[in-house]
Specification:
The structure holds 2 protein chains of 2 kinds. Chain A is mostly helical. Chain A has one domain. Chain A is about 75% helix and about 0% strand. Chain A has helices at about 1-5, 15-25, 30-45, 50-75, 90-120, 125-140, 145-165, 170-200, 205-215, 225-240, 250-255, 260-285, 290-310, 315-335, 340-365, 385, 390-400, 410-420, 425-450, 465-480, 485-495, and strands at about 80-85, 90. Chain A has a two-stranded antiparallel ribbon. In chain A, helix 3 (about 30-45) packs antiparallel against helix 6 (about 125-140), helix 8 (about 170-200) runs antiparallel to helix 10 and helix 15 (about 340-365) runs antiparallel to helix 20 (about 465-480). Chain A is globular and about 70 Å long. The radius of gyration of chain B is 23 Å and the shape is extended. In chain B, about 80% of the residues lie in helices and about 0% in strands. Chain B is mainly alpha-helical. Chain B contains 7 helices and no strands. Classes of the chains: A mainly alpha, B mainly alpha. At the A-B interface, helix 3, helix 6, helix 7 and helix 10 of A face helix 4, helix 5, helix 6 and helix 7 of B.
Chain lengths: ~500, ~180
């Protein structure tokens, strides 16, 4: 009986060991983080209670460091290719984001370890969920199929739904988690519907195949695809918190624990941009006009609304949330401009933004007390005098966000704007430049509070882990400003696997 | 005969879908969803995917929907807040635009019959297993990680608040 059944199976099902090994190599950074996640779950069950937190945190950092090592090694080998029947790839674009997210993961664990201890929250669950978020983000960068794109998106979203509400007793955290769950589910539904329509039009979920099939199909005016692109664009705009799909951002950022906010502000954004580039630029070049207009409108609206709303905020977390909305608008210029220069600028900005935006949030953790977070602008008063090192680093982050030379933020904006002008999107760049001038006012307002002479403030909570993370971020924000070619070159290499126009 | 069953079940599935959205009471929505699942199971059977038919009934119509029913029944009948009047107008507008899009879509899309496959193999346990562990291995494994993470998150969020306090005190005593 078995022999008959096996004989009737098609011949293509053989999957030799060498193929399995080669496939696994291509996703080694992702697989390693997944393995670390599973080991952390086990360690949480086995280890005695009082050791769990620190042990799981160290395991997570170790696993992420190994994953980063794999990614750097693959980056220099540069011979990544598709694996698992084309559902995932190990090309330089994927490896670029794997490096980015591994670094981000290490910083997040360093900051959250001290934070969770201070607030008396459970640790190992948090680190496991952080790792899950990282796996989801890496998956998005490496995905070459709509199926894997969606799975990565869901994995990172589920991790954030839980971590946003990690302070379960607080009503603000509950509000943040509930809001993010509803909005996230809504956005996922949009993305999924859009994917279904694109799949219906192309007959394949593999991104290169979609691009190939639609190139010859004469798709102009195909309502199926147009609707698919609009729905995908709306879902993506939710995820990068672009205007007018941004309303959830300030509330969720404010209610979520600080390390989660820091993680989300950088990680979700970078992952969403990886997803936009993979789906729009790689799979739907035939629909360029449609999604370009869509993204350009979202970009302009985000820059205007984000910067204007940030001016009137009194909570630093909300201020940075609106600043993040505006920053998403800048980065969208690079996607709209496209080509190697545009995408290279996007990758540069995302990697540099990781350091100066994460650093700004991480510094706020020194103001955390067991009763909660203190993130009003007034709480920052005198920070520069009580702890000059932190004050200087906060200044670096704010000036970099505002785009002052010679910091990484300046060159990030410079590359984005010059790519925009080169591609003929002058009106968009004019709005961007005007918006950045406005943005200087609120970034400097933060610094004004940091450098207000007031020495008799509340006690600061300064621990080695977060300070190390902040210091690394500050050093790199300056380094990539003084020597931007290092990262811009990497950005250009990273953008190379995405077919240009 | 197969065509007749297909159309009957398609109508049942769509009516069930409308029932899910239109019912005022959650319990009726859940029961309508069961109808959708059963209709889909029959459609699988028409495609001669017996295994999927069985799984659809056992897992979806059986296990998942029973859980839904439990949750809805335990939460009790909830009073739905009356919608605002302008919501009706907005919803109607969006539905009309979307309907127009769908109508023009259906007009321009070429339809074709499903390709003939070897029915002795299609939809069997072996066929699905080979698919899952060769071509779809990566998405399959990724799904398992997703479910694991969702389970961990659900356990964390649903565990009682006093448990955390007890654990914290125990940690303090040891430290």
């Amino acid at each position: 009986m078995t022999a008959v059944l096996l004989a009737s199976l098609p011949a293509h099902v053989s999957y030799p060991f060498s193929q399995a090994l080669s496939d696994l190599t291509q996703i080694a950074p992702i697989a390693w983080v997944t393995l670390t996640l599973l080991l952390c779950v086990l360690a949480d069950l086995i280890l005695p209670r009082h050791r769990r937190g620190t042990a799981v945190a160290s395991m997570a950092v170790a696993g992420l460091v190994v994953s980063l090592g794999f990614a750097v090694w693959f980056w220099y080998r540069g011979d990544g290719h598709g694996a698992y029947a084309g559902y995932v790839t190990g090309d330089r674009f994927a490896v670029f984001f794997e490096m980015l997210f591994a670094v981000l993961g290490i910083l997040v664990v360093l900051v959250s370890h001290a934070y969770l201890r201070r607030r008396g929250m459970l640790e190992s669950e948090f680190h496991v969920l952080t790792l899950a978020g990282i796996v989801g983000m890496m998956t998005l960068g490496a995905a070459t199929s709509l199926v894997t794109v969606f799975l990565g998106l869901e994995l990172l979203s589920v991790a954030f739904y839980v971590t946003c509400g990690f302070a379960r007793e607080e009503t603000t955290a509950q509000e943040a988690a509930a809001k993010y769950l509803l909005v996230g589910g809504f956005a996922s539904a949009f993305v999924l519907y859009g994917m279904a329509l694109v799949y219906g039009a192309a007959g394949s979920t593999l991104l290169p195949v979609i691009s190939q099939r639609l190139a010859h199909a004469g798709v102009l005016g195909n309502p199926l695809l147009s609707l698919g692109v609009i729905l995908l664009g709306v879902g993506f705009a939710f995820k990068v918190s672009g205007v007018p799909f941004h309303q959830w951002t300030p509330d969720v950022y404010q209610g979520a624990p600080l390390p989660v906010t820091a993680f989300m502000s950088v990680g979700t954004k970078a992952a969403a941009f990886a997803m936009i580039i993979r789906v729009f630029v790689q799979a739907l070049p035939s629909m360029t006009v449609e999604w370009q207009v869509l993204l350009a409108v979202v970009s302009a609206a985000s820059m205007i609304v984000g910067n204007l709303m940030a001016i009137v905020q009194t909570s630093v977390k909300r201020l940075l949330a609106y600043s993040g909305i505006a920053q998403a608008g800048y980065v969208l210029i690079g996607v709209v401009a496209g080509g190697r220069a545009g995408l290279g600028a996007v990758l540069f900005y995302l990697f540099a933004y990781l350091f100066f935006n994460f650093g700004a949030f991480a510094i706020l953790t020194v103001l955390v007390r067991p009763d909660g977070e203190h993130d009003d602008l007034g709480d920052l008063d005198g920070l520069g005098y009580r702890h000059p090192v932190l004050g200087v680093m906060m200044s670096i982050f704010m000036l970099s966000l505002a785009g002052f030379p010679p910091l990484a933020g300046f060159f990030g904006k410079f590359f984005l704007f010059s790519a925009g002008i080169a591609a003929g999107w002058t009106w968009l760049v004019v709005i961007a430049v005007l918006a950045s001038v406005v943005s200087v006012s609120y970034y400097l307002r933060v610094l004004l509070h940091v450098w207000t002479p007031e020495t008799a403030g509340k006690r600061l909570f300064v621990r080695a882990g977060p300070v190390a993370a902040v210091a690394v971020s500050a050093v790199l924000a300056v380094l990539f400003g003084i020597y931007p070619a290092l990262l811009y070159g990497a950005g250009l290499f990273g953008a190379a696997p995405i077919p240009g126009r | 005969m197969a065509a007749v069953i297909f159309w009957v079940m398609a109508v049942v599935a769509v009516l069930g879908g409308i029932g899910v959205v239109a019912s005022r009471q959650p319990i009726r929505s859940v029961l309508s969803l069961v109808v959708v699942m059963l209709a889909l199971a029959v459609e699988f059977l028409i495609l001669s995917a017996q295994f999927l038919f069985a799984v659809q009934i056992i897992v979806y119509a059986g296990a998942v929907m029973v859980l839904f029913l439990f949750v809805v029944a335990l939460l009790g009948p909830m009073k739905e807040r009356r919608q605002l009047r302008f919501q009706w107008g907005l919803a109607l507008l969006v539905a009309l635009v979307f309907g127009g899009f769908l109508y023009s879509m259906l007009g321009s899309v070429p339809f074709r019959a499903p390709q003939r496959t070897a029915l002795s193999v299609f939809g069997t346990v072996q066929d699905i297993a080979y698919g899952l562990f060769t071509k779809y291995l990566y998405p399959f494994e990724l799904t398992s990680v997703l479910l694991l993470v969702a389970a961990i998150g659900a356990i964390y969020l649903s565990r009682g608040g006093h448990g955390i306090q007890a654990r914290r005190e125990e940690d303090d005593r040891r430290a």
